[in-house]
Amino acid sequence: MSRIGKLPIAIPGTVKVTVAGGNVSVSGAAGVVSQSFGDAVEIKFDGSAVEVFPKDDSRHAAAMHGTVRAIINNMVQGVQKPYVRDLEIQGVGFKAILKGNVLDLALGYSHPVLYPIPESIKVTVKDGTAIHVEGADKFLVGKVTVDIKRFYPVEPYKCKGVRIVGERVRRKEGKKSAK
């Protein structure tokens, strides 16, 4: 049995949880997050805590036991305090502009890169080079961050591109000239 899966998830008074079969919905100050889980685990909510139990002794149920518990815990934490990721853009002429619900990225291509932002995610751009991604769903915040980064990952020679703040890129030496 999973050590993580055995732990009950304490629900604070400001968070509302609804469990219906394999569907879990959590709402709080930062928003609403819903997720449906398969039939490998059983989810019980008694008003103050959520507990997850494997339905049988199969390998899949054992694997999903701790995973489902961790996802529900992330949902509860996300509706209390939103998850945040920061990106920075480096490069001459590289910039980002927020146009309504679309992020317009100028990344040195012959065309602008347009990225539609999901409804539950809040994106802000500061000084054209700093992008702040915020939301209650941990998975969706990470997905949006990685999607934006994939448009132009940092290259190791000039360190141009989109990077997550705090990410270390190993700088490579350029081509050696003949003597």
Account of the protein in words:
The structure is a single chain. This protein has 179 residues and is an alpha+beta fold. It is 22% helix and 38% strand. It has 2 domains: 3-80, Alpha-Beta Complex (Outer Surface Protein A, domain 3); 83-163, Outer Surface Protein A, domain 3 (Alpha-Beta Complex). It has a 4-stranded antiparallel beta sheet, covered by helices on one side. The protein has a 3-stranded antiparallel beta sheet with strand order 1-6-5. The longest helix has 22 residues, at 59-80.
Return Rg in Å: 21 Å
Please, what is the average pLDDT? Answer: 92
Named CATH topology of the largest domain: Outer Surface Protein A, domain 3
- What order do the helices and strands follow? HEEEEEEHEEEEEEHE
Strand content: 35-45%
Keywords:
179 residues; alpha+beta; Outer Surface Protein A, domain 3; 2 domains; 4-stranded antiparallel β-sheet; 3-stranded antiparallel β-sheet; 3 helices; 13 strands; elongated
Write the layout of secondary structure elements.
Blueprint: H1 3-6, E1 9-10, E2 16-20, E3 23-28, E4 31-36, E5 41-45, E6 49-54, H2 59-80, E7 83-90, E8 95-99, E9 102-106, E10 113-116, E11 121-126, E12 130-135, H3 138-150, E13 161-164
Antiparallel strand pairs: 1-6, 2-3, 3-4, 5-6, 7-12, 7-13, 8-9, 9-10, 11-12
Give a quick summary of the entry.
By secondary structure, the protein is α+β, with helices and mostly antiparallel strands.
